[in-house]
TrEMBL record:
<feature type="domain" description="Alpha/beta hydrolase fold-3">
    <location>
        <begin position="81"/>
        <end position="288"/>
    </location>
</feature>
<dbReference type="GO" id="GO:0016787">
    <property type="term" value="F:hydrolase activity"/>
</dbReference>
<dbReference type="InterPro" id="IPR013094">
    <property type="entry name" value="AB_hydrolase_3"/>
</dbReference>
<dbReference type="Pfam" id="PF07859">
    <property type="entry name" value="Abhydrolase_3"/>
</dbReference>
<keyword id="KW-0378">Hydrolase</keyword>
<protein>
    <submittedName>
        <fullName>Alpha/beta hydrolase</fullName>
    </submittedName>
</protein>
<dbReference type="InterPro" id="IPR050300">
    <property type="entry name" value="GDXG_lipolytic_enzyme"/>
</dbReference>
<dbReference type="InterPro" id="IPR029058">
    <property type="entry name" value="AB_hydrolase_fold"/>
</dbReference>
Length: 326
């Protein structure tokens, strides 16, 4: 993946120069987690009902905290989105996506449920995925009480959250207990074998580099990445048969470490008969829509995947609008 000398989108060039090239290590992880304790938590918008709920966890495991978002203006049963935050499988919490989840809830008139899954390396696979599946089962089981249309429940996530989303779609397909209607994959972390590649020019990668990728996958798998075999459902890109999975949307930038693995996965979904819309953003690095939130290219990207969710959850024209009050 050889990069051009000046590959960044014009709106992202300044940010690309300022982002430090930091590799995630155990020490860096401890620092990031410590600093996150002091981050100011944004107040919930007045038009949004935000609630933390403890739901039954996997067998023998603690309950799972989920954070729910619903517009106070919405009336009647609505679709829902189970959202999974990113963080390389080792950092993060639902609050980091408060703004995005509130936007989903407000713009689409849906219930959003964000999962506070356990993190590696303390809790390697399958704990994070099992927590996400427990939250998904709860969402389906409580659909009536929550005012959710069970046939219109989507799953989605960014980065490692996108990887967990893809794995969750595969797990749900195999267990046949619940079936998500759609999977939203925002620059997903899908393939541990990328961490072993030596042909990648990482000069222009930002926010998540190859060293961090090795650390993230090693922490999640509990072993060095790229081995001959991995546990079933641990690495979405390792699955041979992708047929029967929910329709997907996948977006990634050309300066993202996950660019190649993401496009390969999207092509394999299509080849397996799974509809997959793909958006590639020229000159965009990993997490650009969060780091440069106000840039036009970031707003356009969010608008594109929000529109994809709208099409998936409101297949009949006009339904999205009529679900909102006022």
């Amino acid at each position: 993946m050889k990069q051009a000398a000046n590959p960044f989108h014009p709106e992202l060039q300044r940010a690309a120069r300022l982002i430090p090239n930091v590799t995630m290590t155990r020490r860096a992880l401890a620092v990031v987690r410590f600093l996150s304790r002091f981050q100011r938590k944004p107040r919930a918008p007045e038009d949004m009902a935000v609630e933390d709920v403890r739901v039954p966890g996997p067998a023998g495991a603690p309950p799972v905290r989920v954070r729910t978002y619903r517009s106070r203006k919405v009336q009647g049963p609505t679709p829902a989105l189970l959202w999974i935050h990113g963080g390389g499988y080792v950092i993060g919490q639902p609050e980091q996506d408060d703004v995005l989840c509130a936007e989903f809830a407000r713009e689409l008139g849906i219930l959003v449920v964000s999962v506070d899954y356990r993190l590696a390396p303390e809790h390697p696979f399958p704990a994070p995925l099992e927590d996400c599946y427990a939250a998904l089962r709860w969402l389906f089981a409580q659909a009536g009480a929550l005012g959710v249309l069970p046939e219109r429940i989507a799953i989605g996530g960014a980065s490692a959250g996108g990887g967990l989303t893809a794995a969750l779609a595969q797990l749900a397909h195999d267990l046949k207990e619940v079936r998500p209607a759609f999977q939203l994959l925002v620059y997903p972390m899908l393939d541990d074998r990328t961490a072993t590649r030596t042909d990648i020019d990482g000069t222009n990668h930002r926010a998540w580099n190859q060293g961090s990728n090795v650390f993230g996958w090693s922490s999640y798998l509990g072993r060095e990445p790229g081995g001959a075999q991995v546990p079933v459902h641990a690495v979405p890109a390792r699955r041979e048969d992708l047929s029967g999975l929910p329709p997907a949307w996948l977006g990634v930038g050309t300066c993202d470490l996950f660019h190649d693995e993401d496009l390969v996965y999207a092509r394999r979904l299509e080849a397996a008969g799974v509809p997959c819309d793909v958006v590639v953003v020229p000159g965009a690095f990993h997490g650009f829509d969060i780091i440069t939130r106000g840039a036009g290219v970031a707003r356009d990207f969010r608008g594109t995947f929000t529109a994809a969710l709208r099409r998936a959850l409101f297949p009949v024209p006009g339904v999205a609008e009529s679900a909102k009050a006022g």
